Amino acid sequence: MEEHRFIPWRESDRRLLVAAAILALALGIFITVFYVVFTTIRIDGPSMAPTLLNGDRILLTKGYPEPAVGDVLSVNVPDEYGRSVRVIKRVVAIGGDTVEVFGDRIYVNGDLAPYCYGEVPEHEDFYAPPFVVPDGMVYIAGDNRGVSYDSRIVGPVPVSAVNGRVVAIVFPLHRLGGVE
Known about the structure:
Layout: H1 11-36, E1 38-42, E2 57-61, E3 72-78, E4 84-94, E5 98-102, E6 105-108, E7 111-112, E8 127-132, E9 137-141, H2 151-154, E10 157-158, E11 162-171, E12 177-178
Antiparallel strand pairs: 1-2, 2-11, 3-4, 3-11, 4-9, 5-6, 5-8, 6-7, 9-10, 11-12
C-alpha cells in the first residue's frame, strides 16, 4: 500500500497564492465600486451637443442629492405618453431661481442661461412667463436647445428624479475626459 505524504508549499507557491488573492480582492472592489457608485451609459441624440455627442459613453455617479447650476445630470422625466424616460440634461436653475422662457432662450434671474451652444433662434410661438422654480426642483435644458426635450416641455423636475451626475466621457477614447 502506498503512503500519502504531505507535499509542503514552496515559497514561490505561497507568493503566487497571495498575489492571486490580492488581485481577486482588488478586482472585486473595482467591480463593486462601478456597480454601486458609478455606471456607464450611452448618449442617444444630439440634445447635449457639443458637450456630449450622439454615441458617447459617459461615466455617471449613482445618486446625487444636491444639484447645482451647470451640473450635467441623468434625470427621469415623463415622455409624451406619461412613461418615464432617462434624459441627460444640464441644470440651468435650482429652487428659488426665477425662470422666463422665450422659445429656445431661457432667462434665469433676468440673465440668459449659460451653456447654450450654437445659434438659438428666438421662437415667438412659445413663451413661459416668469415663475419661481419650487424648492426641491431643478430646471433642466439641453445644451443644443433647438432639439432638446427638457423642462421647457415637462416643467421643473424633482430632485428625487435625478439618477446621478455625469462625471466624464469614457468613449470614444479621443473624447476621453471630464464634463464641464
